[in-house]
Amino acid sequence: MKKTLLVLALSALTALNIYAKDNTLLMATTTSTDNTGLLDALAPVYKQATGVELKWVAVGTGQALAMGKNCDADVLFVHSPAVEKKFIEDGYGVSRTPVMYNDFILVADKSLAPKFQGKSLAETFNIIKNENIKFFSRGDKSGTHNKEVAVWKSVTGNAPEKEMWYNQTGQGMIATINIAAEQKGVTLTDRGTFIKYEDNLKGDSPLVIVSQGDNSLKNYYSVIATNPDNCKDTDIENALQFMNWIVGDDAQKFIADFKLMGKPLFTPDAKIRKD
Length: 275
Fold this sequence. Notes:
One of its GO terms (molecular function) is ABC-type tungstate transporter activity. 45% of the residues lie in helices and 24% in strands. By secondary structure, it is an alpha/beta fold. It folds into 2 domains: 2-102 and 220-268, Periplasmic binding protein-like II (D-Maltodextrin-Binding Protein, domain 2); 103-217, Periplasmic binding protein-like II (D-Maltodextrin-Binding Protein, domain 2), CATH 3.40.190. Strands 1, 2, 3, 4, 5, 6, 7, 8, 9 and 12 form a 10-stranded mixed beta sheet that branches. It has a two-stranded antiparallel sheet with strand order 10-11. A hairpin with a 2-residue loop joins strand 10 (259-260) and strand 11. Helix 7 packs across helix 8. The longest helix has 21 residues, at 2-22. The chain is globular. The chain starts with a helix and ends in a 7-residue tail after the last strand.
């Protein structure tokens, strides 16, 4: 009798585990989709539409891709196109799909703003280097860090690393912005996270935008399914369902309408971008 009850209990537990897997999607994503509140707002809408609960871990894009490579997530929501494409080429992901974009901006303490007024992106970065102005980098191989390094290389030929004025926080975007504010320095951030930072301070930010609008500063987000050939237990069915949903009309409108302080944080581009 006890043996029969144990078998029944194990069968019930197995059924519950299968049910939980079918109704939960595990995502690894960049900090900006989390910090801005976009996923907190999007998740209940997705659950209502599909019955699937979205759970996520917010890290830098490099760490998110590593989670996909290690079979620790079913779907990835990231923003570093070059490394995403390499991830696909190496066989770790499938069906990379454009979702939205915003842009990167350079923000600095208000006292520093006059130094950069009217300057180009290249001129601004050269001023930071030549005047040893405190610069705060995430230093975490995130999409933002990758972009920052690319800008340094394009402007000065190489990225700073051990210079006294160059500080690598090893932290997420909000934390890095806070450190830059405390130290009266400069940092590169995505616009959406900076708007969230401003909103947290009720618009009374010690940092202001000192460089924006350069063509190289577009910030593109895509979703990628973990490759089932590499991760046999990945929930590819739910991953593809989410990917199809987030590029659909309802989700794209939701992203377009998602604002803080009356400002849009992201622009949907699933129907436009081909990359």
